[in-house]
């Protein structure tokens, strides 16, 4: 089954570049130039991943992102933001609205493809992928708080906190020790039901807002993508178990 990538971008040059990148890796691109087309094409084609620009006519990308995540049939589709807007302005809002990754144009092809492959899971069957993404989508729509305890260490600092949002590409952490943008952290995540902490060797701080901060994982390494996917699966199962108690 072909892997469909919906590219939502009103600029033909940008569409041509992004479509050539995904075609080169044997993905099938679909074009939408505005919000109305984006929702229509998403319903029609049920793409595996959506690449979303934020500067669009007829409603900006944030509105489209929120509509996708509020739609029961579309909410599980992973959305990667690819925009000319500066990360300092747009990334935090995009992630809180449900985007799993954020790229500023001009995008680096290898990094974009690595993120797409990390989302899809190169070793998963299409059925396994659908089940996993449905679980992640449900978790994100519920906006589960205090998802899992975490310890973090960086250059001269050590802290503890709670992971409040987790995806294949990054995490939002509320911590008790200050960090700075660009700092590399090692994380220990404590997943309910698992006696040993899960280790993430390298996470880069992308933004800081008070005690909260966002980190990006290096999912270009297959082992890292697999590790994060396992964590998400464990957390989703834990949440389902708690809801039945």
What does the model show?
- It is a single chain.
- The protein contains seven helices and eleven strands.
- The protein is 39% helix and 29% strand.
- A hairpin with a 2-residue loop joins β10 and β11.
- It has a six-stranded antiparallel beta barrel.
- The N and C termini lie far apart (39 Å).
- It is an alpha/beta fold and 245 residues long.
- It has helices at residues 12-24, 35-45, 61-70, 87-96, 109-120, 126-142, 222-244; strands at residues 4-8, 28-32, 49-52, 79-83, 101-104, 148-154, 157-166, 170-175, 184-189, 198-209, 212-217.
- It folds into two domains: 4-141, Rossmann fold; 144-244, predicted glycosyltransferase like domains (Thrombin, subunit H, Beta Barrel).
- The chain is globular and about 45 Å long.
Outline the secondary-structure elements.
Blueprint: E1 4-8, H1 12-24, E2 28-32, H2 35-45, E3 49-52, H3 61-70, E4 79-83, H4 87-96, E5 101-104, H5 109-120, H6 126-142, E6 148-154, E7 157-166, E8 170-175, E9 184-189, E10 198-209, E11 212-217, H7 222-244
Parallel strand pairs: 1-2, 1-3, 3-4, 4-5
Antiparallel strand pairs: 6-7, 6-9, 7-8, 8-11, 9-10, 10-11
């Amino acid at each position: 089954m072909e892997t469909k990538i919906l590219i939502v971008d009103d600029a033909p040059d940008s569409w041509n570049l992004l479509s050539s990148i995904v075609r080169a890796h044997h993905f099938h691109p679909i074009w939408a130039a505005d919000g109305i087309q984006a929702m229509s094409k998403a319903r029609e084609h049920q793409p595996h991943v959506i690449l979303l620009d934020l500067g669009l006519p007829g409603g900006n990308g944030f509105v489209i992102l929120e509509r996708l995540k509020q739609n029961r049939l579309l909410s599980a589709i992973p959305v990667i933001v690819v925009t000319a807007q500066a990360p300092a302005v747009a990334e935090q809002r995009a992630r809180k609205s449900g985007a799993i990754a954020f790229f500023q144009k001009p995008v680096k092809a290898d990094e974009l493809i690595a993120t797409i492959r990390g989302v899809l899971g190169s070793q998963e069957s299409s059925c396994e992928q659908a089940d996993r993404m449905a679980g992640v989508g449900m978790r994100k729509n519920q906006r589960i708080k205090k998802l899992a305890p975490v310890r973090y260490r960086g250059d001269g600092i050590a802290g503890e906190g709670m992971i409040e949002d987790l995806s294949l590409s990054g995490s939002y952490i509320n911590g008790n020790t200050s960090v700075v943008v660009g700092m590399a952290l090692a994380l220990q995540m404590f997943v309910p039901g698992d006696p040993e902490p899960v280790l993430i060797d390298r996470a880069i701080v992308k933004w800081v807002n008070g005690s909260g901060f966002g980190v990006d994982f290096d999912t270009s390494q297959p082992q890292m993508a697999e590790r994060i996917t396992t964590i998400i699966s464990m957390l989703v199962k834990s949440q389902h178990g708690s809801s039945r108690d």
